[in-house]
Design a protein that fits this description.
Length: 280
């Protein structure tokens, strides 16, 4: 039995030595060679922006829209390359429109009292906004006004940047980020200038294959397009989404397709003075 004990002892000693040698020299050499060949997998990066992102989301869920807006803006500025940047920009845009297009109180809004002779388009032109924005903000189902009615009015200064490669339509307000919309489909000429400066030519509403106006009772349920002026020749048009599965209006030959709900919202933010910049 002594020989068996000696054999086991020798195996234990030499096995331990081999394990120690492998981990100390061989394994280290293998890792060095992997690193030299660029095969080493770096450890997962710590998501330092996650607590701030979760806090901003919680504020929005709690209905604290102004605080959520500030938190998302702070997150984007603090972590410009963070993991949650694009999601934070999407959520910031949703918060911005929730504040703008509702009676939620904010410093950017003023009250207007309807006077004799007022019509919606006249008020919108006078106060540099759009009729659709006034209707949405004040939960109006039509264009009729009552003398003495109190309307909340916002005074944004929107511009649009179309990023072709990123498939984004970015809306700025007074030069700062307001919201981004994702392009669903693109039908554009292959050769285009790297940068085009233009403006909104008109917003269009379609119902039953016909153009309709703001006063039409079908306007709110119509399909919205935005035609750009000048050399761009683009039309921003609506494509089917979950809330608009069956659009009647066929798409134009050239343009960018956005979800129909996004086009409804975007069309009420712009007018024929809204500047547009198109870049790669």
């Amino acid at each position: 039995m002594k020989w068996l004990f000696v054999l086991l002892l020798a195996l234990a000693i030499f096995g331990s030595a081999a394990w120690f040698g492998y981990n100390t020299f061989v394994k280290e050499e293998i890792e060095v060679k992997k690193e030299q060949r660029g095969e080493v997998t770096p450890p997962p990066a710590v998501d330092v922006s996650l607590p701030d992102f979760q806090a901003a989301v919680k504020l929005r869920q709690d209905g604290k829209l102004a605080e959520a807006r500030d938190a998302f803006m702070s997150l984007i500025q603090k972590y410009p390359a963070g993991k949650h940047l694009d999601e934070a920009r999407d959520l910031l845009g949703e918060v911005n429109t929730e504040i703008l297009l509702s009676r939620y109180p904010s410093p950017e809004k003023t009250e207007y009292i309807v006077k004799p002779g007022d019509v919606l388009t006249k008020i919108a032109r006078k106060l540099q906004t759009t009729p659709e924005m006034i209707m949405r903000m004040n939960n109006m189902s039509g264009t009729m006004l009552r003398i003495g009615e109190r309307l909340l009015i916002s005074h944004p200064d929107f511009s649009i940047i179309i990023q072709r490669k990123a498939n984004l339509v970015v809306v700025l307000n007074h030069g700062g980020f307001f919201k981004q919309y994702h392009v669903r489909e693109a039908k554009l000429p292959q050769k285009q200038p790297a940068k085009i400066t233009t403006k909104v030519a008109e917003t269009m509403a379609w119902k039953g294959g016909q153009r309709i106006g703001l006063g039409n009772k079908e306007y709110l349920a119509s399909t919205k397009w935005i035609r750009l002026a000048g050399a761009a020749g683009y039309t921003l048009y609506a494509v089917s989404d979950s809330t608009h599965p069956n659009l009647e209006q066929p798409p134009p030959p050239i343009g960018l397709g956005l979800a129909a709900a996004d086009m409804e919202e975007l069309s009420m933010l712009v007018n024929n003075r809204t500047p547009v910049t198109i870049i790669d």
